Each structure stands twice: as C-alpha cells, then as structure tokens.
Amino acid sequence: MKRQIGGRAIKLDRDIRKLFQPGTKQSLQSENNDSQTDQQLVFPKGDIIIAGRNFGSIDETMAEGLISTGIACIIAISFSRPFYRNCINLGLPLIENGEA
Description:
- 20% of the residues lie in helices and 20% in strands.
- By secondary structure, the chain is an alpha/beta fold.
- A 4-stranded parallel sheet has the order 1-4-5-6, with helices on one face. The chain has a two-stranded parallel sheet with strand order 2-3.
C-alpha cells in the first residue's frame, strides 16, 4: 500500500521524554486544542518529525502522545526497538534514514 505523506518537517532531539510532563501526555497538543500553555509543543496535523539516532522511548504512551497530536510520520537515523514496535503497532509510519 502506497501513501503520500506531506507536511512541515520538525527537527527534534532523540530524547522525546523532554516533550512530556512526567506521567502525562499534556505537553504534546495538536494545533486545534484551545487549552495550550507556553510549555506545550504544538504540531499542526500532518507534521513530520526528523530525529537522530535511537529516537524514542520504551513507554508506549510516548508513541500514543505523538499520534494524538496528528504527527504524520517520523524520520530518524534509527529508532529504539520498543518505540519502533509501539509505533508500528499503533499505525504511525516510521522511516529509518542514515542521513536524517
């Protein structure tokens, strides 16, 4: 199955735990959410994350949080294996690219 993905590219650190408040998904919000605070990172629906090596987290809520914001795809040099499996299981497209 082929699917075209397009959107704004956003470069992030490999440690996505910085995007979340401890134990919640509150710091990741979609552009359409009116209850944003200054500490929240906003992703318009369809954005693409560009990341480095070993991107991700073992916690499934990280993948769920990214999906809930409307992220269309993540491109990285490599992904942590648990994060990779969680994203694939949840339907978030991942692309490994040695030059991300």
